[in-house]
Write a structure and sequence with these properties.
By secondary structure, this protein is an alpha/beta fold. 35% of the residues lie in helices and 19% in strands. The protein has 15 helices and 16 strands.
Length: 413
Amino acid sequence: MEQIKEKAVYCLNCKTKPCSIKGCPIQTEIPEFITEIKNENYKKAYDILQENNICSYICSLVCPQEEQCEGSCVRAIKSEATHIGELEKFVNEWAIENNYEYEIKVKPSNGKRVSVIGSGPAGITVAYELLKEGYQVDIYEKESILGGILVYGIPDFRLSKDKVDVIFDKLKSLGANFITGKELGKDIFVKDLSKEYDAVFLGIGAQKSTMYPLAENNTSGVYKSDDFLKAYNEKEFIKALGSVVVIGGGNVAMDSARAAVKMGAKEVKILYRRDRAHMPAREVELDEALEDGVIFEELTRVSSANYEADKMVSVNCVRTEIVDGKAVDKEPEEKFTVDANTVVFAIGLKPNKSLLEAEGIELDDWGYIKLYEDGRTNIDNVYAGGDVTESKATVCRALAAGKKAAKGIIKNI
């Protein structure tokens, strides 16, 4: 507790609030909640966090604070940033330990109905904001369990699922209706929902993994990161992984590598075409992967895979170097092989372009949903947000997109 108080006092309570306005995608009132910690008014601090963000606890655990709020902290200019994430986590854990609940204020029903497709961070936020304003909200989810990336994409060693369950318990108490096992383009369709509901929100996330072929006519032992992590999160461990190679250097690559370790892989290596200094993963995740025994092979491009008796035995690699900030093959070319029985691609996800186009949704030049004013798509009462609309995917950015769409729906519907 004394350490927490010291960290709170360290905050300068800046009037311009760059941590909130510039750094936080959902503009959490950071100096305000930290001031309440200083005053030992933890109830008020928790109320401030919950009013703005029902996923506050989750954000304290998985958000890249060093890039967002803490990255904009005035203290960080000459010294160490205020430990905002740690303080937010403390407040949420204090509320749990002391059985304190934030009283959510809900307006009377306005008779309007909204369908939310996808129960990830963006969908959660849209539902929360609309339910408070008196809208009836039906949440459609293609999986049997609610939560989207929070459940299927983020492993339990980073985010325990009970913290996600709490969110849906709160939404249910506000009147949300959950409909699982309903997939867009198969069981439900935008054109039908847009007629049945006053508004529709698309928060289905980026669903297509980026991959490239490693061997002609043979994909044995090759996995997409989302499928790999889903198998881990559902406790359907992949057997006989052997030596695992994860291609990529982001947070998803770290999660995939650590999941492989926990699923019993003989050895796990992350092969990345850049060096560690250029890895997009958070430092804390890099360190935790190393602690779990993951081996890093930097400046390495995987070109192909070798098979024996239809089983992968190794991957062919090319040594790279950083030139003008870009990873290029070294000259003269340096080739080598790495033992591998399993390869996991963790080099990014993109929206399902064919699905969205079939639903009549306009896309931008990069294949993301094109948004107009207030988070609206090309269809008047259809809104969207989250990974399906932008490439900079973080939980907090998805929450911000959900807030924007909710405001748009409230304003226009």
